[in-house]
Design a protein that fits this description.
The complex is a heterodimer of chains A (258) and B (258).
Chain A: E1 2-3, E2 8-9, E3 14-15, E4 20-21, E5 26-27, E6 31-33, E7 38-39, E8 44-45, E9 48-51, E10 56-57, E11 62-65, E12 78-81, E13 86-87, E14 92-94, E15 103-106, E16 111-112, E17 117-118, E18 123-124, E19 129-130, E20 135-136, E21 141-142, E22 147-148, E23 153-154, E24 159-160, E25 165-166, E26 171-172, E27 180-183, H1 195-200, H2 205-220, H3 225-235, H4 240-250
Parallel strand pairs in A: 1-4, 2-5, 3-6, 4-7, 5-8, 6-9, 7-10, 8-11, 9-12, 10-13, 11-14, 12-15, 13-16, 14-17, 15-18, 16-19, 17-20, 18-21, 19-22, 20-23, 21-24, 22-25, 23-26, 25-27
Helix pairs in contact in A: 2-3, 2-4
Chain B: E1 2-3, E2 8-9, E3 14-15, E4 20-21, E5 26-27, E6 31-33, E7 38-39, E8 44-45, E9 48-51, E10 56-57, E11 62-65, E12 78-81, E13 86-87, E14 92-94, E15 103-106, E16 111-112, E17 117-118, E18 123-124, E19 129-130, E20 135-136, E21 141-142, E22 147-148, E23 153-154, E24 159-160, E25 165-166, E26 171-172, E27 181-182, E28 189-193, H1 195-200, H2 205-220, H3 225-235, H4 240-250
Parallel strand pairs in B: 1-4, 2-5, 3-6, 4-7, 5-8, 6-9, 7-10, 8-11, 9-12, 10-13, 11-14, 12-15, 13-16, 14-17, 15-18, 16-19, 18-21, 19-22, 20-23, 21-24, 22-25, 23-26, 25-27
Helix pairs in contact in B: 2-3
Classes of the chains: A alpha/beta (258), B alpha/beta (258).
Chain lengths: 258, 258
């Protein structure tokens, strides 16, 4: 066992021999950590929390705290996490309320990216990827091999089916079909020049006027992008910032939002 | 006072007798904490911050930090928090600025869930519930008994009216009416098979072909879901994954996104 001298580990906690506990970690009385699991630093784990083998828990993670449920009255509920999971910074995993089996459960070989939230009574299978900032409400099921995109918000009791792909920034109110590609549409509008921002950053009025002329050709004329670029170059705008704009568009790999 | 030996409390901080302070917390010089308040491990309370009675401040919360305001010049500004509030992990509450009344104010019996951000000069009333990862910009007012859903973003100077319900994932750029149910629409599109995901997870070409056809019946034919399920079973697809898809739909408590 490799426990940093600044780590605060309750004597009642059960840590396997090959566990590593880094600086400023706080581990509570009823916590179990399996072989090969590493808690890097500054993480707090409490409650009846059993974590299996070969997990990697990054700094500033919170596991095992009470559910965000106004009905919860301090009952002795649990968190169970399997083997081989990667849990990144600022992830929070809350223990269950008393409904169902009273457990929040995460399987094996899952990847929870930074800021992900797993609420009370959620059940996650194996080989799941959850990207940054996604928030699961209570009692959600995520089935094996699903991918949940960044900043998704998932309503309580929903199920995310096996092998599904849920696009980023989707607000989910119903079940997501297994094997599917499902996403919220993500419209993006360009509303011309960032006038206020440019003024604050000291661009002279002539530059802003040129840029406004260039944007009008880009977005308000009947020209497609290629034609608009030709028209912009033909107009011979003085501002060097127009050239930066043109270069940017010419060198784009994914296309530009217009 | 129940203070963990690793907690760092400035000698001038005014901490009531029944306050609990957890491991590695930090309480700054101009902080006041009222009776029965609990500050858990790794929470930071700094600045000119007065916190009342019976509050719970969870790990990694940061209360009293300087604002995200480029106009802030280091002036003395305050955070005032009342009684009986729950402040969960990773919540950030920043102090006021001279452009406001130099105070960020939170009333009584509020529930701030994990990752909530309360910016400079905000005012939160009483009995407010703020779900995960809401971001308030500066000078926002949340009135009594409002509920703000997870992942909302509130534009500066907006007001969220009393007893309102603001749906998850809403970007609010104007005031939200008191007593109202207000939400951004949240369309979700299901775009057939998660082809790339299935290939990279080793499903066979035949499996994917069968699933493609099943999804076409589900979403591209003129059949409703019940009829589509019957058609899928009549086709007798070989892939066991199609059966899993059918089972999932049949057992869905909330309906599926289609």
């Amino acid at each position: 066992m490799n426990v940093h001298p600044t780590a605060v580990v309750h004597p009642g906690a059960r840590l396997a021999d090959s566990v590593t506990v880094g600086p400023y970690t706080v581990i509570g009385e009823h916590v179990e950590l399996g072989e090969g699991t590493e808690v890097i630093s500054h993480t707090v784990i409490e409650g009846r929390t059993r974590i299996g083998k070969n997990n990697r828990i990054f700094p500033y993670v919170s596991i095992g705290f009470p559910p965000q449920d106004v009905k919860y009255r301090g009952e002795d509920t649990r968190v169970e996490i399997g083997d081989g999971n990667t849990i990144r910074e600022f992830v929070s995993i809350h223990r269950a309320n008393t409904s169902g089996e009273g457990v929040t459960r995460i399987g094996n070989h899952n990847w929870l990216m930074a800021y992900v939230h797993i609420a009370h009574n959620c059940t996650l299978g194996d080989h799941i990827i959850i990207a940054n900032g996604a928030s699961l409400a209570g009692h959600i099921e995520i089935h094996d091999h699903a991918t949940v995109g960044a900043y998704c918000g998932i309503h309580q009791f929903c199920r995310i089916g096996a092998y599904s792909f849920l696009g980023a920034f989707s607000a989910v109110n119903q079940d997501i079909l297994p094997y599917s590609k499902t996403t919220a549409p993500r419209p993006l509008g360009v509303y011309g020049t960032n006038k206020i921002g440019l003024e604050r950053r000291g661009l002279p009025p002539e530059d802003i006027k040129d840029l406004e002329g260039a944007f009008r050709l880009l977005t308000r004329s009947k020209l497609n992008t290629t034609q608009a670029l030709e028209a912009i170059e033909a107009k011979g705008f003085h501002s060097p910032h127009v050239k930066v704009l043109v270069e940017f568009i010419k060198s784009t790999e994914r296309g530009v939002a217009k | 006072m129940n203070v963990h030996p690793t907690a760092i409390i400035h000698p001038h901080a005014q901490v009531a007798g029944s306050v609990t302070v957890g491991a590695y917390s930090r309480i700054g010089e101009h902080v006041e904490l009222g009776e029965g308040t609990e500050v858990m491990a790794h929470a930071v309370v700094e600045g000119h911050t007065r916190i009342g009675k019976n509050n719970q401040i969870f790990p990694f919360a940061s209360v009293g930090g300087i604002p995200h305001d480029l106009k802030y010049r280091g002036e003395v500004a305050y955070v005032e928090i009342g009684d009986g509030n729950i402040i969960r992990e990773f919540v950030t509450i920043h102090c006021g600025t001279a452009l406001g009344e130099s105070v960020t104010r939170i009333g009584h019996h509020n529930f701030l869930m994990a990752y909530v951000h309360i910016a400079h000069d905000c005012t939160v009333g009483n009995h407010v519930i703020m779900a995960n990862a809401i971001s308030l910009a500066g000078h926002v007012e949340i009135q009594d008994y409002a509920f703000v859903g997870p992942l909302c973003a509130i534009h500066q100077f907006c007001r969220i009216g009393a007893y309102s319900f603001l749906g998850a994932c809403t970007v609010a750029t104007r005031d939200v009416l008191p007593y109202s149910k207000t939400s951004a629409p949240r369309p979700l599109g299901m775009y057939g098979t998660n082809r790339k995901g299935l290939e990279s997870r080793g499903l066979s070409k035949e499996d994917i072909k069968d699933l493609d056809a099943a999804f076409r019946l589900l979403s591209r034919s003129k059949l409703n879901t019940t009829q589509a399920l019957e058609a899928m079973e009549a086709r007798e697809f070989k892939s066991p994954h199609v059966q899993k898809l059918v089972e999932f739909i049949r057992t869905s408590p909330r309906g599926v996104a289609k």
